[in-house]
Batch of 4 targets.
Target 1
Amino acid sequence: MSSAQGFGSNMPRTKLTQGQLNAILMRHQAFRKSQPGGVRANLKLRDLSHLDLSGIDLSDADLSGAKLFSARLSGANLSNANLYAADLRLANLERADLRRADLRGACLRGAVLSEASMVEVDLRDGTLLHYGAGGEINPHEFENSVLTSELTAASMRNADLSRAKVANAFVMQADLTDAIMRGTKFMRANLTNANMTGCDLSDADLTEANLTGARLSGAVMTGCAINRTNFAGATLIGAILDAAQLRSPNLQAAVMAKVLENPEDDLREILLLHATWIDSGGRNGKRADLSAIDLSGRVLDGINLSAAILQCITLRNASLPGATLAIADMSLSDLRNVDFTGADLRGANLERATLTGANLSGAQLGPVHIQSMSNHVWRANLQRARLGMAQLRNADLRKANLAGANLAGSDLRGANLSEADLTGADLTGASMDGAILDDAKSGDAIGLAVA
């Protein structure tokens, strides 16, 4: 039973006008600032449907049982707020601060929570309540009186749910693309058909969770508990898994990266056809497509896969020094510890690829100038790429798109980052001696010392 039904249709809710709400908010602001006349906002059981609460501060407020159907709460501060069993269906909570909020038994069906901060939020079950004659809220005294939190079809792209409690919740068909869910508790949660592309689930608990049909391409799952997790039909191509996880029988029903039946012969034929395709300008041969293929540990020194389709390829620990991969598409790929020393990766698409520990020393990651009427410049795309502890010494990263990339602890000494986009990138602990940053975009970059 959803929280929208949980309080009962006959439960009285006082409808507030925008003016009445504004008066309550003013007193709450005074309360937050310890000013005279300040009163903590008590919006328990109030009907705030369709009202505009964008950017307001309701931290620590009581909104238990409130109806916020289709309310506008973008950028609102709801940290530590009591939203127990609240009705937040179709509410806009984009970029809202919900840290440590109590959302037990809340209904967020179809809500927009993109880029919201939901660190340590509590979305576990709640107890079904009813409105007593004296105005108090009491628990029902019969069995099956549990409210399950619901996030069905919610949009949570790039939301931060680190250490959140989401046990038993309904999260079916939710969009969790690029969401941060480190250490999040998803025990017995229903994540059927959820889109979890590129999300970070490191150290999360998915014990007995249902991930049937979920999309986890490029997701980081290292340290994630998957005991008795249902992965039937789930796509884990390009997902980052521990060796122990890969041995789990739970993954047998998942869609995983494929292995070539005859690696040496098959790869030789693919490369010959690709070379013909390049030399003939696409008239003959065949463009190489190694998407979702596992080539872990292979020696591919000097290989030419320019403009090849390599989406979700697994090349963990492979050797590709001097390889030519210009304009190749390696998005969402597992490229951990790959040796790309001196490789030509100009204009390559490495969006959401995991290059942790990779060696890209002296690699070319600058732009490619496409000779055409428009003289198009094709930039290397490393948006949201994971380059923690990667070697990028003396690499050419001119004009590269590194927005949102993780470069923590990487070696960027002598790298050319002129005109690169470092917006929102994490450069904590990165070695930057001699790096060229002329005209680079560095808004919201973390750990970048600007002279």
Note: Residues 261-451 form a domain with the Pectate Lyase C-like fold (CATH 2.160.20).
Target 2
Amino acid sequence: MIYVVDVNLMSFAFVAGSERHASEIAGSPGFVQALDRFFLNRQGFRGSNHRPRAATVQELALFSDMSSEFADATADVLVARVG
């Protein structure tokens, strides 16, 4: 299933097997560090206390398009900005 984390008026999607797994990914140090780097030169990232939610149909379509174009077969997790 595709889950989304909303951060600073942006939405980031990723694949997880369950809501619990999505929460683990969203709270993991690697995920937090990736978002920190993304927001480094922007308005700032205020930690990963954001709960994952199921993607909307539109977010799912955007994620599918991006993942088919940019996915690396060796990547553990693909995180795509969908909003």
Note: The radius of gyration is 12 Å.
Target 3
Amino acid sequence: MARWAGWGAGPAGAGATGGPSRIFLGVALAGSAVVAGVLGAQGRWPAAGVAACAAGYFALRLFAGLGKGER
């Protein structure tokens, strides 16, 4: 492993246990969708767009298998 890799980059580092659970992804998806809706209702469109992108990311991780498999 390269010296510059830093903490969490090795085989026992971040993501070594298989990534986030489906429950966590579902909660994150629901939470970011609610935040996007609230921000949109307040007219804060840039922030609502970021939250909507987060909801899309969590939906892809949860339903489309994004991030699974070996590299």
Note: The first helix runs from residue 22 to 41.
Target 4
Amino acid sequence: MGCVQGKCCLPRQQRGRGGGGGVGVGGRGGATLGRAAVPGAGLVLEYATLTVAGLYPDSPGRESQDAYVAATRFAGDPDLHLFAVFDGHGACGAACAGFARDALPRLLAADAGRLAEDPAAAFRGAMPAANAEMHAAAAVDDSMSGTTAVAALVAGGALHVANVGDSRAVAGVWRDGRAVAEELSWDQTPFRADERARVKACGARVMSVEQVEGVRDPDAEGWVADEGDPPRVWARDGLYPGTAFTRSLGDLAAEAVGVIAEPEVKSVEITPAHLFFIVASDGVFEFLSSQEVVDMVAMYEDPREACSAIAEESYKLWLEHENRTDDITIIIVHIRDSENPGPAGSLKMSCSNSGAPITLHKLQPELPVFAPSESSHLNRDAANELPSSSSGSPTEESLPCVVPSPTHLLFGDGKASETSKLIQSEGAVSEPVEACHQRDGGVELDCSLQRSNPTLSC
């Protein structure tokens, strides 16, 4: 889910119900397959990737705004393997996602020493650095556009996941005789009480489109996932940026109200119970839960077939709820033992009735883990209490509001000049116009907010 300047301009109840159509990726169609050894941990990774452009009826040729990375032997290290997904939003979302796809691996590789010793710290340095580079890039207008980023790094016998936004990573773990979803990231949206409090402390208003338009009580916080427009981040006196997430790369205007590029990072030991992990855009998780996606992956021995099945199901669900679909990008990585490189979990699924998995490779030393309380970081469901996370959680730190100073790029010359005018106008409302169409990468979408505030640039 993006921002009102790009995707999802209309509240859900105002969108038409789609019908017919299909993703056309049955079987292995379109998915690519790769394999990589992790010699230091005695593992083999078998991975598949698939990206499907969204269906936008008004613009059938619209380019996908998703991008991804599948980089094995990363930075020349046979034990490092990087998998990442970037979901662009806004008029320049595709350019922002492409920029992040290129910048993040380069910045991580340039910090190879720290990446090997402390991957979490390397991610915490690289993502804000990629964000700063995007702001400074003359070829990318990120003033009202940006991208989510979720990256999973296999480092020997450990998995490190860094996330900004609402794309997601989840692992399938063998437990009690089945593959159970283990969250590797948490969607950073205003549904989360801690993220909502943080952006409000930075001067943001958190309201749905219906609340902004006066249809609902502006002070109510009882938003329900998948019902109506979600809570969004707005400037205190302006109708921008309207983001449905609280962290991202890019989104220069949104930084003034606390939308930051500081990632949350989770590190886990890869145990014999870990069957696979998934990294995907919210085109997958908008209507499928993490457990439903894990269940689907567990049904297929070939990750390409799982990619295709998940994309097809996601596509179908989008058309059941909307008159369009989002871009869909999926990476599935099976974790196999180097001495038993058969189907993921093939031995684990033949274990005793107790559900105890057969040991396929040695346990790695226990790692420090950042894992916010599962109950307070439900993906897609609202979390109403502040998290009680473990030591080192970004929620326990004083995260910057990133309020621009008078010399901030946002208020200078160059690509952000129009946005600076928008912010300085502080949401001045003009007379309604007859009609307006919001252009997002070539797609025109009706945007009711712009009828009441033409300063929201198309």
Note: The first strand starts at residue 32 and ends at 38.
